[in-house]
Specification:
The protein is α/β, with parallel strands linked by helices and about 230 residues long. It is built from 8 helices and 9 strands. The chain is globular and about 50 Å long.
Length: about 230
């Protein structure tokens, strides 16, 4: 099976090289890498240009969901693996996930645990982060840990840009409500960098995030009732 990697990038110059290094050196190399530069104003595009095998798509700033959707549209292979511009992949991430897809055609999404790590040089984790979570192993389902069959997007549709920063939660809820086969690897295959500008951390505890989550839960309940679940 062949796999496209999609990485949305917005002002990620501080960490982008570490991310790309971890992607291009996978034990099972990706067949295609697409970086979607979402209107960056720093040196992100120049960093991507240093990697001959990485295709860079430029667009006006539209947010991470719009960037992921653009990457999915451009991807040419059967599987799409997502990454964030500040995370680091374990060397066997692609090999482990592709093996699961090859063994079970009913699986549409494979995710894994993540291992948080505090960026060297940061004196303390963001105040919005619960104590101890800066170095925690987490088993939630985020876009930065999933690999998806392209056919799932054809069935479920794109990410919803109005749901950022929980557009991944909203999309995954839609997919699971529709009965898409899912597998979770309990070992961390992605290292999630904690720094002073994590979008998901900044939004924690805000009324806006609570309102978005209520929308996700309500829509899921409506879908399940309609399906008789």
């Amino acid at each position: 099976m062949r796999v496209s990697v999609v990485i949305p990038v917005y002002n990620g110059a501080r960490f982008l090289a570490d991310t790309l290094d971890s992607v291009v050196t996978q034990s099972r190399p990706p067949d295609e890498i697409i970086a979607v530069d979402d209107g960056s104003t720093d040196d992100s595009a120049a960093i991507v240009a240093r990697y001959p095998g990485v295709r860079c798509i430029h667009q006006a700033n539209g947010g991470c969901a719009a960037a992921r959707n653009r990457g999915v549209e451009a991807a040419t292979h059967e599987l799409v693996a997502f990454g964030d511009h500040d995370d680091i992949w374990m060397p066997d991430r692609l090999q482990r996930t592709i093996t699961i897809f090859e063994q079970d055609p009913a699986i549409g999404i494979v995710a894994s645990a993540i291992q948080n790590f505090l960026t060297p040089g940061i004196a303390a984790p963001p105040s919005a982060l619960p104590a101890g979570e800066a170095e925690a192993r987490l088993h939630g389902m985020g876009t930065n840990t999933i690999v998806v069959r392209r056919s799932v997007f054809e069935r479920i549709g794109p990410f919803d840009s109005s749901m950022v920063p929980i557009d991944d939660t909203e999309w995954l809820t839609r997919a699971l409500d529709a009965g898409v086969g899912f597998w979770h690897i309990g070992e961390p295959l992605v290292r999630r960098r904690i720094h002073d500008r994590n979008l998901s951390v900044e939004a924690r505890g805000t009324p806006a995030l609570g309102a978005l989550m209520a929308r996700v839960l309500h829509a899921s309940l409506v879908r399940r009732r309609a399906a008789g679940k």
